[in-house]
Amino acid sequence: MRSYWHDNLRLVGICLLIWFVVSFGFGILLVDVLNQFRIGGFELGFWFAQQGSIYTFVALIFFYAWRMSIVDARHGVDTADHTDGNGDGNSNGAPAVEANADQGASDTPGGRA
Q: Taking Cα atoms as reference points, which of 23, 17, 14 lies closest to residue 68?
């Protein structure tokens, strides 16, 4: 399981690095250099600051989901089963909370329903 988390954290680190370079690097630090080029009539540095970093972030979400499915398969992690093994469908380890239909108004604060 340690190698699974190592692969997961490595992937998160790579995604964060790409996001940082695109949003902060291209949109702020290298804006003057990139403004020499145009995309869709806008200066490239401005485009990265306003649109490019958002598009990159959305693309990174899909990339992360795709890549994690490969990592999950490699390590034998089944993402279809979200239970903790006790059969209640709850993956956080907390006991299942069952609704009790016969609870009356006296169980509410002030006796009101």
A: 14
Per-domain residue ranges of the chain:
2-75
What local confidence, expressed as pLDDT, does residue 99 receive? 53
Is residue 26 within 8 Å of 35, Cβ to Cβ? no
* H-only helix segments in 1-113: 2-20, 31-34, 44-47, 53-75
52: three-class secondary structure by DSSP: helix
- Tokens representing 89? 């469908």
Its pTM surpasses 0.70: no
CB 82 within 8 A of CB 89: yes
Q: Is the dihedral of CA 45, 28, 25, 69 positive or negative?
A: negative
Calculate the alpha carbon distances from 93 to 61, 66, 78, 83 in Å: 27, 27, 17, 9
Task: Read off φ and ψ for residue 40, nearest 5 degrees.
Answer: 60, 30
Find tokens 């998160």 and name the residue.
12
* Residue 22 to residue 45: CA distance in whole angstroms: 10
pLDDT at 20: 92
